[in-house]
Amino acid sequence: MEEPLLLPVTYQNEDLELEFSLQRIGYIQRVGVKIGEVIVFFEPDEEGSYRALVNAEQMEQSKSLSVGLLQAIAAQLEKLSLS
């Protein structure tokens, strides 16, 4: 069995290691990041910055999700060369 890929993220002075997976859909590289029990997908926008694909229902249901954490993950993904 393969070891999961881990994304190091610092959020609120806490160092986290979140499992992630890469998916290629046509020309788009999509990243699935496991946050608690929820998998949030991130895609690059037109400028190459990553954006989270999450809806309000997911935000309400999961106590692990916050806008600040999603922004920290997106910033970390932008630092990586995933293509």
Short key terms for the protein model shown above:
alpha+beta, 2 helices, 5-stranded antiparallel β-sheet, 83 residues, globular
Compact description:
The chain has 83 residues and is an alpha+beta fold. The protein has helices spanning 56-61, 67-79, and strands spanning 5-11, 14-25, 28-35, 38-44, 50-53.
What can you see in these coordinates?
The protein is α+β, with helices and mostly antiparallel strands and 83 residues long. It has one domain. Helices cover 23% and strands 46% of the residues. It has 2 helices and 5 strands. A 5-stranded antiparallel beta sheet has the order 1-2-3-4-5. The longest helix has 13 residues. The mean pLDDT is 88.
Which bin fits the share of residues in helices?
10-25%
Strand order of the largest sheet: 1-2-3-4-5
| Estimated radius of gyration | 12 Å
Give the helix/strand class.
alpha+beta
- Number of separate strands: 5
Query: Gap between N and C termini, in Å?
Result: 24 Å
Shape: globular
Residue stretches low in confidence (pLDDT < 50, at least 5 long) are none
**How many domains make up the coordinates?**
1
Specify the biggest β-sheet. Answer: 5 strands, antiparallel
Order of helices and strands: EEEEEHH
- Average pLDDT metric: 88
Please work out how many helical segments DSSP would assign: 2
